[in-house]
Amino acid sequence: MNIRENDFNRIDLNLLTVLLVLYRERSVTRAAQKLFLGQPAVSGALARLREMFNDPLFVRSAKGMEPTPRAVSLVAELAPLMENMQQVLFQQPEFSPARARQTFRLGVTDWVESWLIPPLYQFLRRHAPGVRLQVTATDPFQDAALLMRDEIDLAISVAVDAPHAVVRQVLTTMGYQTFWHPQQQQPSTPLTLEAYTRADHLLVSYLGADSSQIDRQLATLGKRRRVVYTTPHFATLPLLLQRSAAFATVPAGLETNWRQHYGLCASPPPLEIAPFEVAMLWHRRRDREPALLWLRQTVNTLLAEAGRRG
Predict the structure, then answer these.
(1) Residues 195, 156 within the same domain
(2) Are residues 267 and 286 part of one domain?
């Protein structure tokens, strides 16, 4: 960037605007009207322009204010520059998905990836073929930090809150389903509390805990369950359910996928478990970024369509 800053100390950009409007209108009176200025102010600006460029710039004639060759040359050079400056300063850039060549970095857990990414990927391939998705495996305890460090653009998260610098927008509220494989066990449905507490359980814990809100809720009922496997990932659970007589209580958004692809059965858990919110998180400084705004709107649209389909 080769800019001599001191050169601009001698220039008032408002004067250049007056020059362009005078050139277009060929009249001090009409230029003043377009600029919402008094005629004396425009005449004064013209006097300063003449001094700055050492040229009359405009001369009176029967047709109005005729530009000099110097004025014609200046306008030819300045008009596109001023138009570009206006676009940069005052017009929000647009995002065209069909022409975009961009990578979106998403932070998601593995269950959100299997629930949301397939329809999002399909939509992007159809409507934004030049866009790439880069998924980072994360969890609710890391999402905000990754956004603050600019390591991801958007998180789909079950985090219940966010720092001020991070915007949180709820996408949906979701409950839980309990899964098992029918070749391993055939409990009556809906599940009873007795059958639930008698079985082995597989547990997902991001922090490695061996209990969850389910166990705390069972404790209030004087009950407990037997957790035989704990993991931070959801992906292995259906494979283990195919091989053992166990239950896994997980977000209800996985039901369609796990029923279709793993042959699992599902029932609501036989106790009251508070539903949770799934939200989008992004950094506040990027709130109006056109590309990210489009992505957020796309996610909202896909979930709304999924909700209408049931």
Answers:
(1) no
(2) no
